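Retro notes, structure queue

What went well: the backlog is down to a handful. What didn't: a couple of records were mislabeled last round, so from now on we paste the full input next to the output in the thread. Example, using Amino acid transporter transmembrane domain-containing protein from Zasmidium cellare ATCC 36951:
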Amino acid sequence: MMDSTNNIDEKRSAKPVVELQQSEPSPPSIRNGTVVDKDEVFKASADGVDFRTVTWQRPIIILLKVQVATGVLGIPSAMGTLGAVPGSLVVVGWQALNTYTTCILIDFRNRRPYCHTIVDMYGVMWGLVGRELVGIMFVVAFVLCTGSGLLGTSIAFNALFAAIILVIMFSSIRTWDRMTWPMTLGVASVLGGVLAVVVGVALRDRPAAAPAEGAFELGFDVVGAPTFAAGITATATISISSSAGPVYLPIIAEMRRPQDYRKAVIPVGFMVGAIYLTVSLVVYHYCGQWIATPSLGSAGPLIKKVAYGIPLPSLVVSTGIFNHAAAKYAFVRVLRGSPHSQQNTWQHLACWIGLNVVFGALAFVFASAIPVFSYMLSLAGSVCFAPMSLIFPALMWFYDFGGHGWNGTVRSKAMWLFHALIVLVGAFLTVGGVYGTAESIRKTYDGSSGVGAFNCADNSGTIV
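Corresponding output:
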Protein backbone atom coordinates (compact mmCIF):
# COMPACT_ATOMS: atom_id res chain seq x y z
CA MET A 1 0.00 0.00 0.00
CA MET A 2 2.76 2.43 0.89
CA ASP A 3 4.63 1.67 -2.33
CA SER A 4 1.55 2.30 -4.48
CA THR A 5 0.84 5.57 -2.68
CA ASN A 6 4.40 6.73 -3.27
CA ASN A 7 4.08 5.86 -6.96
CA ILE A 8 0.88 7.92 -7.26
CA ASP A 9 2.53 10.90 -5.57
CA GLU A 10 5.51 10.64 -7.87
CA LYS A 11 3.26 10.62 -10.94
CA ARG A 12 1.29 13.64 -9.70
CA SER A 13 4.44 15.62 -9.00
CA ALA A 14 5.85 14.80 -12.43
CA LYS A 15 2.74 15.83 -14.38
CA PRO A 16 3.24 19.64 -14.38
CA VAL A 17 6.79 19.19 -15.65
CA VAL A 18 5.55 17.18 -18.61
CA GLU A 19 2.90 19.80 -19.43
CA LEU A 20 5.49 22.60 -19.33
CA GLN A 21 7.78 20.71 -21.66
CA GLN A 22 4.96 20.11 -24.10
CA SER A 23 3.81 23.74 -24.18
CA GLU A 24 7.31 25.25 -24.39
CA PRO A 25 9.78 22.95 -26.18
CA SER A 26 13.14 24.31 -25.02
CA PRO A 27 13.01 27.39 -22.77
CA PRO A 28 16.59 27.00 -21.44
CA SER A 29 18.21 27.14 -24.91
CA ILE A 30 19.16 30.81 -24.65
CA ARG A 31 19.95 30.83 -20.95
CA ASN A 32 22.76 28.30 -21.23
CA GLY A 33 24.36 30.11 -24.16
CA THR A 34 23.24 27.82 -26.95
CA VAL A 35 20.51 28.20 -29.53
CA VAL A 36 18.40 25.23 -30.51
CA ASP A 37 18.13 25.85 -34.24
CA LYS A 38 15.00 23.76 -34.68
CA ASP A 39 13.10 26.13 -32.38
CA GLU A 40 14.23 29.35 -34.07
CA VAL A 41 11.95 31.01 -36.62
CA PHE A 42 14.79 31.13 -39.17
CA LYS A 43 17.16 28.19 -39.52
CA ALA A 44 20.82 28.22 -40.55
CA SER A 45 20.83 27.74 -44.32
CA ALA A 46 23.73 27.06 -46.68
CA ASP A 47 21.81 26.82 -49.97
CA GLY A 48 18.89 29.19 -49.28
CA VAL A 49 18.32 32.60 -47.72
CA ASP A 50 20.23 32.78 -44.44
CA PHE A 51 18.34 35.32 -42.33
CA ARG A 52 20.36 34.66 -39.16
CA THR A 53 23.51 36.62 -40.11
CA VAL A 54 23.36 39.66 -37.83
CA THR A 55 26.28 39.91 -35.39
CA TRP A 56 25.85 41.84 -32.13
CA GLN A 57 27.78 44.87 -33.48
CA ARG A 58 25.45 45.56 -36.40
CA PRO A 59 22.28 45.96 -34.34
CA ILE A 60 23.88 49.06 -32.81
CA ILE A 61 23.52 50.80 -36.19
CA ILE A 62 20.15 49.19 -36.92
CA LEU A 63 18.63 50.08 -33.55
CA LEU A 64 20.01 53.62 -33.70
CA LYS A 65 18.29 54.14 -37.04
CA VAL A 66 15.10 52.60 -35.73
CA GLN A 67 14.94 55.20 -32.96
CA VAL A 68 16.70 58.31 -34.21
CA ALA A 69 14.92 60.09 -37.06
CA THR A 70 13.98 63.65 -37.88
CA GLY A 71 11.23 63.40 -35.29
CA VAL A 72 13.93 63.89 -32.61
CA LEU A 73 13.43 67.58 -33.34
CA GLY A 74 9.84 67.28 -32.13
CA ILE A 75 11.09 66.71 -28.57
CA PRO A 76 12.24 70.35 -27.94
CA SER A 77 8.67 71.61 -28.29
CA ALA A 78 7.54 68.94 -25.81
CA MET A 79 10.27 70.07 -23.44
CA GLY A 80 9.10 73.67 -23.95
CA THR A 81 5.68 72.59 -22.71
CA LEU A 82 7.00 70.80 -19.62
CA GLY A 83 9.98 73.06 -18.78
CA ALA A 84 13.70 72.27 -18.86
CA VAL A 85 13.98 70.28 -15.62
CA PRO A 86 10.75 68.23 -15.84
CA GLY A 87 11.34 67.73 -19.57
CA SER A 88 14.85 66.41 -18.97
CA LEU A 89 13.63 64.06 -16.25
CA VAL A 90 10.87 62.80 -18.55
CA VAL A 91 13.36 62.16 -21.39
CA VAL A 92 15.76 60.24 -19.13
CA GLY A 93 12.98 58.41 -17.31
CA TRP A 94 11.16 57.22 -20.41
CA GLN A 95 14.38 56.19 -22.14
CA ALA A 96 15.43 54.11 -19.12
CA LEU A 97 11.98 52.53 -18.69
CA ASN A 98 11.54 51.74 -22.38
CA THR A 99 15.02 50.20 -22.52
CA TYR A 100 14.14 48.02 -19.52
CA THR A 101 10.80 46.89 -20.97
CA THR A 102 12.56 46.17 -24.27
CA CYS A 103 14.86 43.78 -22.41
CA ILE A 104 11.79 42.08 -20.89
CA LEU A 105 10.33 41.59 -24.39
CA ILE A 106 13.55 40.14 -25.79
CA ASP A 107 14.12 37.86 -22.79
CA PHE A 108 10.57 36.53 -23.19
CA ARG A 109 11.25 35.88 -26.89
CA ASN A 110 14.61 34.27 -26.21
CA ARG A 111 13.05 31.83 -23.76
CA ARG A 112 10.69 30.92 -26.62
CA PRO A 113 12.81 31.12 -29.81
CA TYR A 114 9.84 30.11 -31.96
CA CYS A 115 8.39 33.60 -31.39
CA HIS A 116 9.19 36.09 -34.15
CA THR A 117 7.31 39.21 -33.06
CA ILE A 118 5.28 40.46 -30.10
CA VAL A 119 2.26 38.94 -31.87
CA ASP A 120 3.62 35.39 -31.42
CA MET A 121 4.50 36.19 -27.82
CA TYR A 122 0.96 37.21 -27.03
CA GLY A 123 -0.19 34.04 -28.74
CA VAL A 124 1.78 32.17 -26.05
CA MET A 125 -0.03 34.11 -23.32
CA TRP A 126 -3.55 34.53 -24.68
CA GLY A 127 -3.83 31.92 -27.40
CA LEU A 128 -5.37 32.49 -30.83
CA VAL A 129 -7.59 35.42 -29.79
CA GLY A 130 -4.74 37.37 -28.21
CA ARG A 131 -2.49 36.62 -31.16
CA GLU A 132 -4.93 37.96 -33.75
CA LEU A 133 -5.91 41.05 -31.75
CA VAL A 134 -2.29 42.05 -31.18
CA GLY A 135 -1.56 41.17 -34.82
CA ILE A 136 -4.13 43.73 -35.97
CA MET A 137 -2.66 46.30 -33.56
CA PHE A 138 0.86 45.58 -34.84
CA VAL A 139 -0.05 45.96 -38.51
CA VAL A 140 -2.13 49.11 -38.00
CA ALA A 141 0.65 50.78 -35.99
CA PHE A 142 3.35 50.08 -38.56
CA VAL A 143 1.24 50.93 -41.59
CA LEU A 144 0.39 54.30 -40.02
CA CYS A 145 4.07 54.88 -39.20
CA THR A 146 4.94 54.04 -42.81
CA GLY A 147 2.26 56.45 -44.02
CA SER A 148 3.57 59.24 -41.83
CA GLY A 149 7.14 58.71 -42.96
CA LEU A 150 5.93 58.46 -46.56
CA LEU A 151 4.22 61.84 -46.23
CA GLY A 152 7.44 63.43 -45.00
CA THR A 153 9.44 61.75 -47.76
CA SER A 154 6.97 62.86 -50.43
CA ILE A 155 7.24 66.48 -49.27
CA ALA A 156 11.02 66.29 -49.48
CA PHE A 157 10.90 64.79 -53.01
CA ASN A 158 7.78 66.76 -53.99
CA ALA A 159 6.14 63.58 -55.30
CA LEU A 160 4.23 60.98 -53.30
CA PHE A 161 4.49 58.28 -55.97
CA ALA A 162 8.27 58.65 -56.29
CA ALA A 163 8.53 58.42 -52.50
CA ILE A 164 6.60 55.16 -52.28
CA ILE A 165 8.74 53.58 -55.04
CA LEU A 166 11.94 54.43 -53.14
CA VAL A 167 10.52 53.20 -49.84
CA ILE A 168 9.37 49.85 -51.28
CA MET A 169 12.73 49.33 -52.99
CA PHE A 170 14.52 49.73 -49.67
CA SER A 171 12.03 47.76 -47.56
CA SER A 172 12.23 44.83 -50.01
CA ILE A 173 15.81 44.04 -48.93
CA ARG A 174 15.14 40.66 -47.35
CA THR A 175 17.43 40.58 -44.30
CA TRP A 176 18.21 43.12 -41.60
CA ASP A 177 21.90 42.39 -42.06
CA ARG A 178 21.90 43.63 -45.67
CA MET A 179 19.96 46.73 -44.63
CA THR A 180 22.82 47.81 -42.35
CA TRP A 181 24.79 49.87 -44.88
CA PRO A 182 21.84 52.00 -46.04
CA MET A 183 20.94 52.43 -42.37
CA THR A 184 24.48 53.63 -41.64
CA LEU A 185 24.00 56.32 -44.28
CA GLY A 186 20.61 57.11 -42.75
CA VAL A 187 22.05 57.51 -39.24
CA ALA A 188 24.85 59.75 -40.51
CA SER A 189 22.45 61.90 -42.54
CA VAL A 190 19.90 62.43 -39.78
CA LEU A 191 22.61 63.27 -37.25
CA GLY A 192 24.04 65.71 -39.79
CA GLY A 193 20.66 67.41 -40.12
CA VAL A 194 20.22 67.53 -36.35
CA LEU A 195 23.70 68.99 -35.92
CA ALA A 196 22.95 71.67 -38.52
CA VAL A 197 19.90 72.82 -36.55
CA VAL A 198 21.70 72.73 -33.18
CA VAL A 199 24.61 74.78 -34.52
CA GLY A 200 22.24 77.09 -36.38
CA VAL A 201 20.16 78.03 -33.34
CA ALA A 202 23.32 78.56 -31.25
CA LEU A 203 24.77 81.04 -33.76
CA ARG A 204 21.67 83.22 -34.16
CA ASP A 205 21.16 86.43 -32.17
CA ARG A 206 17.49 85.63 -31.71
CA PRO A 207 15.20 82.70 -32.65
CA ALA A 208 13.97 82.71 -36.24
CA ALA A 209 10.34 82.73 -35.11
CA ALA A 210 10.83 85.67 -32.69
CA PRO A 211 10.08 89.30 -33.71
CA ALA A 212 12.72 90.53 -36.13
CA GLU A 213 13.28 93.78 -34.23
CA GLY A 214 12.92 95.13 -30.69
CA ALA A 215 12.90 93.43 -27.32
CA PHE A 216 11.26 90.04 -26.88
CA GLU A 217 10.70 87.53 -24.10
CA LEU A 218 12.60 84.28 -24.70
CA GLY A 219 10.23 82.24 -22.58
CA PHE A 220 12.71 79.66 -21.26
CA ASP A 221 11.08 78.00 -18.22
CA VAL A 222 12.98 75.85 -15.77
CA VAL A 223 9.65 74.37 -14.68
CA GLY A 224 6.65 74.75 -16.97
CA ALA A 225 2.98 75.02 -16.06
CA PRO A 226 1.08 73.19 -18.83
CA THR A 227 -2.57 72.19 -18.82
CA PHE A 228 -3.27 68.50 -18.34
CA ALA A 229 -4.00 67.96 -22.03
CA ALA A 230 -0.82 69.75 -23.13
CA GLY A 231 1.30 68.04 -20.47
CA ILE A 232 0.11 64.51 -21.18
CA THR A 233 0.51 65.06 -24.94
CA ALA A 234 4.10 66.26 -24.45
CA THR A 235 4.84 63.33 -22.13
CA ALA A 236 3.34 60.87 -24.60
CA THR A 237 5.40 62.38 -27.44
CA ILE A 238 8.63 61.84 -25.50
CA SER A 239 7.62 58.35 -24.38
CA ILE A 240 6.61 57.14 -27.81
CA SER A 241 9.84 58.46 -29.33
CA SER A 242 11.77 55.77 -27.41
CA SER A 243 9.22 52.94 -27.47
CA ALA A 244 10.98 50.85 -30.11
CA GLY A 245 10.87 47.47 -28.35
CA PRO A 246 8.29 45.93 -30.73
CA VAL A 247 10.56 46.80 -33.67
CA TYR A 248 13.61 45.28 -32.00
CA LEU A 249 12.12 41.80 -31.74
CA PRO A 250 12.24 40.74 -35.43
CA ILE A 251 15.79 42.13 -35.59
CA ILE A 252 16.88 39.99 -32.62
CA ALA A 253 15.29 36.97 -34.33
CA GLU A 254 17.85 37.39 -37.14
CA MET A 255 20.91 37.56 -34.87
CA ARG A 256 23.45 34.74 -34.95
CA ARG A 257 23.45 34.74 -31.16
CA PRO A 258 20.22 36.32 -29.86
CA GLN A 259 21.53 36.00 -26.30
CA ASP A 260 24.06 38.78 -27.09
CA TYR A 261 21.35 41.39 -27.61
CA ARG A 262 22.23 43.41 -24.47
CA LYS A 263 25.61 44.31 -26.01
CA ALA A 264 23.65 46.39 -28.52
CA VAL A 265 20.42 47.35 -26.73
CA ILE A 266 21.99 48.87 -23.60
CA PRO A 267 24.55 51.09 -25.42
CA VAL A 268 21.87 52.22 -27.87
CA GLY A 269 19.63 53.16 -24.94
CA PHE A 270 22.36 55.42 -23.53
CA MET A 271 23.21 56.93 -26.93
CA VAL A 272 19.62 57.69 -27.89
CA GLY A 273 18.91 59.21 -24.48
CA ALA A 274 22.01 61.40 -24.78
CA ILE A 275 21.02 62.56 -28.28
CA TYR A 276 17.44 63.34 -27.26
CA LEU A 277 18.52 65.20 -24.14
CA THR A 278 21.31 67.21 -25.77
CA VAL A 279 19.35 68.28 -28.85
CA SER A 280 16.19 69.20 -26.95
CA LEU A 281 18.01 71.19 -24.26
CA VAL A 282 20.17 73.14 -26.72
CA VAL A 283 17.28 74.01 -29.03
CA TYR A 284 15.03 74.95 -26.12
CA HIS A 285 17.78 76.97 -24.44
CA TYR A 286 18.31 79.15 -27.51
CA CYS A 287 14.73 79.28 -28.80
CA GLY A 288 12.55 79.16 -25.66
CA GLN A 289 8.90 79.65 -26.56
CA TRP A 290 9.92 80.54 -30.13
CA ILE A 291 10.60 76.95 -31.17
CA ALA A 292 9.35 76.81 -34.75
CA THR A 293 6.80 74.28 -35.95
CA PRO A 294 8.28 72.15 -37.41
CA SER A 295 11.38 72.44 -35.22
CA LEU A 296 13.67 72.23 -38.25
CA GLY A 297 12.74 75.84 -38.96
CA SER A 298 14.02 77.11 -35.61
CA ALA A 299 17.37 78.17 -37.10
CA GLY A 300 15.93 80.16 -40.01
CA PRO A 301 14.99 79.45 -43.66
CA LEU A 302 18.51 78.65 -44.92
CA ILE A 303 19.37 76.16 -42.15
CA LYS A 304 15.89 74.71 -42.51
CA LYS A 305 16.62 73.85 -46.15
CA VAL A 306 19.98 72.38 -45.19
CA ALA A 307 18.47 70.42 -42.29
CA TYR A 308 15.83 68.90 -44.57
CA GLY A 309 18.29 68.31 -47.40
CA ILE A 310 20.94 66.40 -45.45
CA PRO A 311 18.56 63.75 -43.96
CA LEU A 312 16.87 62.82 -47.25
CA PRO A 313 18.38 59.28 -47.14
CA SER A 314 17.18 58.98 -43.55
CA LEU A 315 13.58 59.75 -44.57
CA VAL A 316 13.56 56.85 -47.04
CA VAL A 317 15.36 54.47 -44.66
CA SER A 318 13.14 55.27 -41.64
CA THR A 319 9.96 54.77 -43.66
CA GLY A 320 11.32 51.59 -45.21
CA ILE A 321 12.06 50.14 -41.77
CA PHE A 322 8.40 50.37 -40.78
CA ASN A 323 7.23 48.85 -44.07
CA HIS A 324 9.86 46.08 -43.81
CA ALA A 325 8.75 45.20 -40.25
CA ALA A 326 5.08 44.91 -41.25
CA ALA A 327 5.89 42.90 -44.39
CA LYS A 328 8.31 40.58 -42.53
CA TYR A 329 5.62 39.84 -39.89
CA ALA A 330 3.10 38.87 -42.58
CA PHE A 331 5.77 36.95 -44.55
CA VAL A 332 6.60 34.76 -41.56
CA ARG A 333 2.90 34.20 -40.84
CA VAL A 334 2.25 33.08 -44.43
CA LEU A 335 5.34 30.92 -45.05
CA ARG A 336 6.25 29.63 -41.57
CA GLY A 337 6.97 25.91 -41.86
CA SER A 338 6.86 26.03 -45.66
CA PRO A 339 9.82 24.88 -47.79
CA HIS A 340 9.60 28.28 -49.52
CA SER A 341 10.28 30.29 -46.37
CA GLN A 342 14.07 30.31 -46.87
CA GLN A 343 14.48 29.08 -50.45
CA ASN A 344 14.91 31.34 -53.49
CA THR A 345 11.79 30.03 -55.18
CA TRP A 346 9.37 32.16 -57.16
CA GLN A 347 6.80 31.64 -54.42
CA HIS A 348 9.23 33.04 -51.83
CA LEU A 349 10.09 36.10 -53.92
CA ALA A 350 6.51 36.74 -55.02
CA CYS A 351 5.26 36.60 -51.45
CA TRP A 352 7.99 38.90 -50.12
CA ILE A 353 7.79 41.53 -52.87
CA GLY A 354 4.00 41.34 -52.94
CA LEU A 355 3.66 41.95 -49.19
CA ASN A 356 6.02 44.94 -49.39
CA VAL A 357 3.93 46.40 -52.20
CA VAL A 358 0.63 45.71 -50.38
CA PHE A 359 1.70 47.37 -47.13
CA GLY A 360 3.33 50.23 -49.04
CA ALA A 361 0.09 50.73 -50.96
CA LEU A 362 -1.92 50.82 -47.73
CA ALA A 363 0.44 53.44 -46.33
CA PHE A 364 0.10 55.37 -49.61
CA VAL A 365 -3.69 55.40 -49.21
CA PHE A 366 -3.47 56.62 -45.61
CA ALA A 367 -0.94 59.31 -46.49
CA SER A 368 -3.15 60.52 -49.34
CA ALA A 369 -6.50 60.39 -47.56
CA ILE A 370 -6.03 61.49 -43.94
CA PRO A 371 -6.12 65.30 -43.68
CA VAL A 372 -4.51 65.70 -40.23
CA PHE A 373 -2.16 62.74 -40.28
CA SER A 374 -0.08 63.77 -37.27
CA TYR A 375 -3.12 63.43 -35.01
CA MET A 376 -4.00 60.03 -36.44
CA LEU A 377 -0.42 58.91 -35.88
CA SER A 378 -0.45 60.28 -32.33
CA LEU A 379 -3.67 58.39 -31.68
CA ALA A 380 -2.15 55.18 -33.08
CA GLY A 381 0.89 55.74 -30.90
CA SER A 382 -1.21 56.05 -27.77
CA VAL A 383 -3.47 53.10 -28.58
CA CYS A 384 -0.80 50.77 -30.05
CA PHE A 385 2.75 51.63 -29.01
CA ALA A 386 2.07 52.57 -25.39
CA PRO A 387 0.49 49.14 -24.66
CA MET A 388 3.08 47.22 -26.74
CA SER A 389 6.02 48.98 -25.05
CA LEU A 390 4.77 49.20 -21.45
CA ILE A 391 1.69 47.15 -20.61
CA PHE A 392 2.52 44.04 -22.64
CA PRO A 393 6.13 43.63 -21.36
CA ALA A 394 5.00 43.97 -17.74
CA LEU A 395 2.29 41.35 -18.30
CA MET A 396 4.90 39.06 -19.83
CA TRP A 397 7.02 39.45 -16.70
CA PHE A 398 3.99 38.43 -14.61
CA TYR A 399 3.41 35.47 -16.92
CA ASP A 400 6.95 34.17 -16.29
CA PHE A 401 7.70 35.32 -12.74
CA GLY A 402 4.64 36.87 -11.14
CA GLY A 403 3.05 33.66 -9.91
CA HIS A 404 5.44 33.24 -7.00
CA GLY A 405 6.75 36.81 -6.74
CA TRP A 406 4.20 38.13 -4.24
CA ASN A 407 4.78 35.23 -1.84
CA GLY A 408 8.58 35.39 -2.05
CA THR A 409 11.23 37.65 -0.56
CA VAL A 410 11.04 41.39 -0.05
CA ARG A 411 12.88 41.87 -3.34
CA SER A 412 10.36 39.64 -5.13
CA LYS A 413 7.47 41.68 -3.73
CA ALA A 414 9.17 44.92 -4.75
CA MET A 415 9.63 43.63 -8.31
CA TRP A 416 5.99 42.54 -8.38
CA LEU A 417 4.84 46.02 -7.34
CA PHE A 418 7.24 47.69 -9.80
CA HIS A 419 5.82 45.79 -12.77
CA ALA A 420 2.27 46.42 -11.57
CA LEU A 421 3.15 50.11 -11.57
CA ILE A 422 4.41 49.82 -15.16
CA VAL A 423 1.01 48.42 -16.18
CA LEU A 424 -0.75 51.36 -14.50
CA VAL A 425 1.60 53.91 -16.08
CA GLY A 426 1.05 52.34 -19.50
CA ALA A 427 -2.72 52.41 -19.03
CA PHE A 428 -2.58 56.05 -17.89
CA LEU A 429 -0.41 57.00 -20.89
CA THR A 430 -2.78 55.21 -23.26
CA VAL A 431 -5.92 56.88 -21.92
CA GLY A 432 -4.21 60.24 -21.41
CA GLY A 433 -2.67 60.16 -24.88
CA VAL A 434 -6.04 59.46 -26.47
CA TYR A 435 -7.59 62.30 -24.47
CA GLY A 436 -4.79 64.73 -25.34
CA THR A 437 -4.99 63.85 -29.05
CA ALA A 438 -8.79 64.20 -29.06
CA GLU A 439 -8.47 67.60 -27.37
CA SER A 440 -5.91 68.71 -29.96
CA ILE A 441 -8.21 67.59 -32.78
CA ARG A 442 -11.10 69.51 -31.22
CA LYS A 443 -9.03 72.68 -30.94
CA THR A 444 -7.85 72.30 -34.52
CA TYR A 445 -11.39 72.09 -35.87
CA ASP A 446 -12.48 74.93 -33.57
CA GLY A 447 -9.79 77.07 -35.18
CA SER A 448 -7.83 77.65 -31.96
CA SER A 449 -4.84 75.61 -33.14
CA GLY A 450 -3.48 75.51 -36.66
CA VAL A 451 -1.85 72.37 -37.91
CA GLY A 452 -0.97 72.01 -41.55
CA ALA A 453 0.14 69.12 -43.64
CA PHE A 454 3.77 70.14 -43.32
CA ASN A 455 3.59 69.67 -39.56
CA CYS A 456 2.49 66.13 -40.13
CA ALA A 457 5.68 65.39 -42.00
CA ASP A 458 7.81 66.45 -39.06
CA ASN A 459 6.25 63.68 -37.01
CA SER A 460 7.61 61.03 -39.32
CA GLY A 461 10.12 59.78 -36.79
CA THR A 462 8.31 60.61 -33.60
CA ILE A 463 6.82 57.22 -32.95
CA VAL A 464 9.95 55.20 -33.02
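Agreed that this is the format going forward. Reviewer comment attached to the example: The two ends are 65 Å apart (CA to CA).
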